[in-house]
């Protein structure tokens, strides 16, 4: 895939042309940070209606504009103006430029994504809503699909079938970001039919086409000259331009005007693709695409004296400067060649209009308007503003009426663009690059100091919102992304990067036979039994439940999007998150071990500054074992009170988890609830042991929506079943259009009518994971004490368990002895409480709802206020903590 770089407050347009009866397969993946993404189609305008052939109005339009230009060899054309009305040259230059610009502005033919031209110096763009979605109003562009915000790391695939062909604009929008540039991966491929599209999605541009500029030796220069001669290009002094003989590219360096004022020009590497008609540019020695222009569809103007080239696609404007006169000539002729080829391939047999009388009438009317406009310009400084406005409005109205009489529209005479210095008319057919005199620029007021790289980004003021820029905040508060308020998530935020190593020591001791242990306990709850320590893995159950948060970014991603109501995408993404914790047991060797069973009152905290959440889990009841989980981020709260149990049935063992997981969205107070599925451990007696879910998950929203996760059923000899499908339903139980399919061990893809989004992929495993308990990298970090936890944790934290610490170092016998001591101490504490009649009271959670005698009923709610865990942590008030070891 091609790497695209989109600067802050900027956007990038990737132009793709599809032929008739073709399918265009594309894919895009933002890296690290989100971008907005939309696809537009350029309206098809017949060549005869584009002022490019022998129609009378098109010819008159060409004559009205060629007064601005001089050819490469210096010849000068003149304005076809009646002798009775002589005009000075500067006035004629202003006349044609301002006349055409005002026509287009009034008729809405240059309104585009960047409306800075109309707003310059008067209106500041303050609203975040003024992005490409609301400001892209170019009448020549039709919205195909707005995908809104694409979340980082998700690969989005799509396909567009077109019978008529056309030019499509893939727009990657980063205008909402004030300071942060973005990088995305993108690829597109046009195939002849839809059947071939599926296999073409992963195709990439051959490396042989990815040419890079380098100094050209004499042999290469000769080859360049041969190709240039075949294409009628100048051949002298071509050492700064490379044109491979067998390729469709011409490439070299040009100076490009920077986006901001007073920054001048900078050197960039440009590639002109003759096959696709696009001009692309890169930083030197960098393969990230930074911009692209469709030359055939753009207005190209050139100033021979200053060696400047202006390219206006109607979406954005580039100001380029050739390093030498010979380079200037080569680039101009190359652009001309592209336009000639386009005109020849689309030229009709007859010119625009077939009624000579109508053409003559239109021509006469245009001449009259032309002269009236000249008079207005001469009296410009002395004319009252209201009178001037009235006069211009009258002219524009009459011009519009001429177009209606002609049976055309404004697009038949004028192309889009800021730099419409003249019609594309270096040859006899009106196609080519306009050569603008230096006088023109001076008289029109277009200054090099003006930022013309993009029309929207240059005037954004400091009030413009930026969702990607970290907010300046007090050390203990975070602002929600929705802007609804500030929440206290101490010790977050943490600006300093935290070193969090994930690796663990290699463990060579195999677990004892599980079968020999369970033979004596058929039908019993294995979670209540004390197992040999060498059957454990070096984490506790409290840490095991932290694995639920390994992919917490899926919740953040779900909240970032803007979804059609009928799609169900929001709840589908939440449902996909509810499944991801299962991937932690995708390595089958984990089935042979179990986590350490925490002591009553044992706790575990996890603060992930990179993921933006803080996690707390406490064991709140011993028999039956019940755990309370509370997780907070700036945008959501997750709570869960799991009560796991496991029973052995001979060849299989089933794992049940009572309790309801609850996710609350802060901004809307919408809640999502679900229960974890029953999982079964198979082949306990013989064969390869593995775990798979065997019951569906139903995620319910307080809005009435629900999603059902169905796990595929495997056959007797088919091995582990990993496939799943998620369907969404509205409040009336109607199935919605989007679905999620995939494997809980690898990948989940959200499917729409035309697009696939890879919304989840399994994370990395530890290196040499087969000898490290099959841990994912996330799990490998759970026992680490980083700078966040150093000297901050209570003594009850799982990281301080003496038996687990020595067990992690491979000291099996010592770990077994310490484990027995800890269990004996727990029995002694429980006996003392029973004798005193004082029930155990958890420190950081309280039982709410359900029966007081049934700790598995209701739910366990996190205690807020000064006695809360995080407030005690802030004050380092652990004096009353239970002593567990």
Automatic annotation (TrEMBL):
Residues 247-340 form the PH domain. One of its GO terms (molecular function) is sterol binding. Residues 77-87 have a biased composition (Low complexity). SMART domains: PH (SM00233). Keywords: Lipid transport, Lipid-binding, Transport. Residues 49-87, 437-480 are annotated as: Disordered. The keyword Protease does not apply. GO terms for biological process: endocytosis; ER to Golgi ceramide transport; exocytosis; intermembrane lipid transfer; maintenance of cell polarity; piecemeal microautophagy of the nucleus. Residues 62-76 have a biased composition (Polar residues). PROSITE patterns: PH_DOMAIN (PS50003). This is PH domain-containing protein. It comes from Australozyma saopauloensis.
């Amino acid at each position: 895939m091609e790497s695209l770089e989109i600067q802050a407050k900027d956007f990038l347009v990737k132009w793709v042309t599809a032929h008739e009866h073709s399918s265009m397969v594309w894919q895009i993946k933002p890296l690290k940070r989100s971008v907005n993404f939309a696809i537009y189609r350029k309206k098809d305008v017949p060549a005869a209606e584009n002022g490019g052939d022998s129609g009378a109005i098109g010819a008159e339009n060409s004559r009205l504009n060629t007064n601005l230009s001089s050819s490469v060899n210096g010849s000068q054309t003149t304005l076809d103006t009646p002798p009775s009305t002589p005009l000075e040259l500067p006035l004629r230059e202003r006349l044609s430029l301002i006349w055409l610009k005002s026509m287009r502005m009034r008729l809405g033919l240059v309104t585009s994504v960047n409306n800075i031209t109309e707003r310059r110096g008067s209106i500041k763009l303050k609203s975040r809503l003024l992005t490409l979605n609301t400001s892209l109003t170019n009448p020549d562009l039709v919205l195909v699909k707005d995908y809104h915000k694409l979340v980082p790391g998700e690969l989005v695939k799509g396909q567009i079938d077109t019978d008529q062909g056309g030019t499509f604009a893939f727009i990657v929008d980063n205008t909402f970001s004030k300071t942060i540039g973005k990088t995305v991966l993108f690829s597109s491929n046009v195939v002849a039919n839809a059947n071939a599209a599926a296999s073409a999605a992963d195709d990439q541009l051959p490396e042989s086409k990815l040419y890079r500029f380098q100094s050209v030796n004499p042999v290469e220069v000769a080859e360049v000259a041969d190709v240039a001669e075949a294409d009628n290009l100048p051949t002298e002094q071509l050492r700064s331009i490379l044109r491979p003989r067998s390729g469709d590219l011409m490439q070299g360096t040009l100076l490009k005007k920077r986006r901001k004022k007073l920054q001048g020009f900078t050197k960039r590497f440009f590639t002109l693709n003759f096959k696709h008609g696009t001009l692309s540019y890169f930083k030197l020695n960098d393969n990230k695409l930074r911009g692209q222009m469709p030359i055939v569809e753009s207005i190209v103007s050139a100033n021979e004296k200053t060696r400047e080239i202006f390219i206006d696609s109607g979406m954005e404007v580039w100001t380029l400067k050739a390093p030498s006169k010979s380079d200037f000539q080569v680039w101009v002729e190359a652009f001309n060649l592209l336009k000639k080829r386009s005109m020849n391939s689309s030229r009709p047999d007859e010119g625009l209009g077939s009624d000579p009388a109508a053409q003559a009438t239109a021509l006469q009317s245009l001449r009259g308007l032309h002269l009236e406009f000249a008079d207005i310009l001469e009296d410009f400084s002395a004319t009252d503003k209201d009178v001037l406005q009235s006069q211009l409005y009258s002219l524009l109205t009459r011009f519009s009426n001429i177009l209606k009489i002609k049976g055309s529209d404004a697009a038949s005479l004028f192309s889009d663009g800021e730099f419409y210095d003249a019609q594309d008319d270096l040859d006899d057919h009106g196609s080519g690059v306009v050569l603008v005199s230096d006088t023109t620029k001076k008289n029109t007021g277009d200054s090099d100091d003006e930022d013309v790289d993009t029309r929207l980004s240059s005037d954004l003021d400091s009030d413009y919102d930026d969702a990607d820029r970290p907010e300046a905040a007090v050390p203990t508060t975070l602002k929600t992304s929705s802007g609804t308020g500030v929440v206290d998530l101490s010790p977050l935020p943490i600006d300093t990067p935290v070193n969090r190593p994930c690796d663990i020591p290699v463990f060579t001791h195999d677990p004892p036979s599980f079968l020999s242990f369970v033979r004596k306990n058929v039908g019993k709850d294995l979670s209540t039994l004390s197992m040999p320590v060498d059957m454990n893995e070096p984490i506790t159950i409290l840490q095991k439940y932290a694995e639920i948060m390994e992919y917490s970014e899926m919740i953040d991603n779900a909240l970032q999007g803007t979804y059609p109501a009928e799609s169900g995408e929001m709840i589908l993404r939440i449902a996909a998150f509810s499944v991801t914790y299962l991937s932690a047991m995708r390595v089958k060797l984990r089935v042979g071990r179990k986590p350490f069973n925490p002591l009553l009152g044992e706790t575990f905290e996890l603060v992930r500054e990179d993921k933006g959440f803080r996690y707390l889990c406490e064991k709140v009841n011993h028999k039956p074992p019940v755990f309370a989980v509370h997780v907070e981020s700036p945008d959501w709260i997750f709570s869960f009170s799991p009560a796991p149990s496991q029973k052995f049935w001979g060849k299989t063992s089933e794992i049940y988890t009572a309790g309801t997981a609850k996710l609350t969205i802060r901004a809307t107070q919408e809640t999502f609830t679900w229960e974890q599925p029953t999982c079964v451990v198979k082949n306990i007696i013989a064969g390869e042991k593995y775990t798979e879910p065997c019951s569906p998950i139903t995620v319910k929203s307080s809005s009435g929506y629900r999603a059902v996760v169905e796990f595929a059923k495997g056959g007797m000899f088919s091995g582990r079943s990993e496939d799943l499908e998620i369907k969404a339903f509205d409040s009336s139980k109607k199935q919605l259009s989007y679905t999620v399919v995939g494997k809980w061990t690898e990948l989940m893809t959200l499917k729409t009518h035309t697009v696939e989004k890879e919304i989840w992929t399994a994370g990395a495993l530890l290196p040499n994971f087969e000898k490290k308990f099959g841990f994912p990298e996330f799990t490998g970090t759970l026992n680490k004490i980083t700078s966040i936890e150093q000297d901050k944790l209570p003594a009850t934290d799982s990281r301080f368990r003496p038996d687990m610490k020595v067990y992690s170092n491979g000291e099996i016998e010592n770990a077994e002895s310490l484990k027995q001591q800890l269990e004996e101490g727990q029995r002694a504490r429980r006996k003392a409480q029973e004798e005193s009649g004082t029930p155990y009271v958890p420190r950081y959670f309280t039982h709410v709802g359900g029966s007081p005698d049934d700790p598995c009923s209701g739910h366990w709610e996190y205690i807020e206020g000064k006695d809360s865990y995080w407030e005690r942590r802030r004050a380092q008030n652990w004096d009353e903590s239970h002593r567990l070891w």
